[in-house]
Amino acid sequence: MATLTKKKKEAIAKVDSEKLYSVKDAVSTIKEVSLTKFDATVDIAVRLGVDPRKANQMVRGTVTLPHGTGKDTKVLVLCTPDKEEEAKEAGADFVGLDEYVEKIKGGWTDVDVIITMPSVMGKVGALGRILGPRGLMPNPKTGTVTMDIAKAVTEVKAGKIDFKVDKYGIIHASFGKASFDVEKLDENAQELLQTLVKLKPASSKGVYMKSIFISSTMSPSVAVDPKTISA
User: Fold this and answer.
1) pLDDT in tens, 48-66
2) CB under 8 Å, gap of 24 or more: what pairs does 74-77 form?
3) Does pTM surpass 0.85?
């Protein structure tokens, strides 16, 4: 077993594992215990009282974080030639169709988000086996299959993220960087949590938000009191 460094031990000691924090106190603590030499990503994991195997309890959606994610999101737009200029002007990193479909078939997936349009979904759908497991498959529900390419690219670049409950009923999302100040991290997390509250399925009974943990890359995680999230 790897021995803990002195700094890591000190970081763990600063987190009270018996305590449930408010979101603000949690991000403040995470900023204190973030030990990486690089600007660590701050993540949240929310365990919901839903059964994702039931279609009427699937929680998925999008949220635009008020202060962005802090990372430069690489966007690929798969579109017809008449839409290419619009995509480039909106800030897409890669724009095209057939050549990128072939690149993806060859294993290339060096992007964060793929945006496309309904008329080319036939070609894009064939990439499902590659894009699906990586969470890159465009979907009308998340606004990544649209005729308004410019709007979709602008929103993603501004900090729009999508999320989906996994098979264990947990939502995982990154909502900022350790270099953000506490207020920005708090506001980003609150925006995401309020979006989840609004998406509570009518068929979900009992406690909806079972647990919330906030952590940063290689940091201990901090438990947030779900009761502090106002419905």
Assistant:
1) 999 999 989 999 888 999 9
2) 74/110, 74/111, 74/112, 74/113, 75/111, 75/112, 75/113, 75/114, 75/115, 75/153, 75/156, 75/157, 76/100, 76/111, 76/113, 76/114, 76/115, 77/114, 77/115, 77/116, 77/149, 77/153
3) no
